[in-house]
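# nightly structure sweep
# worker-07 picked up a monomer target from the shared queue
# config: single-sequence mode, recycle default, output format = structure tokens
# input follows
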Amino acid sequence: MSFANFGRASGTVQWQSSSLSDRVQAVSAVAEQLARLRMLGAPNTFAAWQRVRLGGSSYTPQESAVVGDFLRPSVGTRAKPVTADHLQGLVAEHLWYLLELGRVPVGELRYLSEPKFHATAPGGDGIAVTATRHGSGCGRSRKRRVIPSARPWPMPMPS
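# output follows
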């Protein structure tokens, strides 16, 4: 599934799919992007997270501790989850990031800020700078909230 094809119309990207399969794929893509950015520089840790997410063997005690160290500040744990505001902001920033990557034609994206580590921390929420006919300089900022879902967060979390 590509975020590039989510309802392009008049230069905007809108959610137009209502199938459960597409929603599950979108949630999975956001979770994977979040984990990939959080575990940047730790490919074995990401591989362990990916293995558990895809239904493979459980974490070893060491893997559980390391994955927890990477994800706890962002998504919390089952025993101590983050606030709903924080989780909504986190998902919104990562979804916006993925949508921007798919929205902008190849070669036109000049800069795209990665989502923050702490979604509710002060500071900007994201900026994208794209090329225009006259050079660079068209900016977009993300400042929207995601409506919470009744479905549980699909991230395999340590205890």
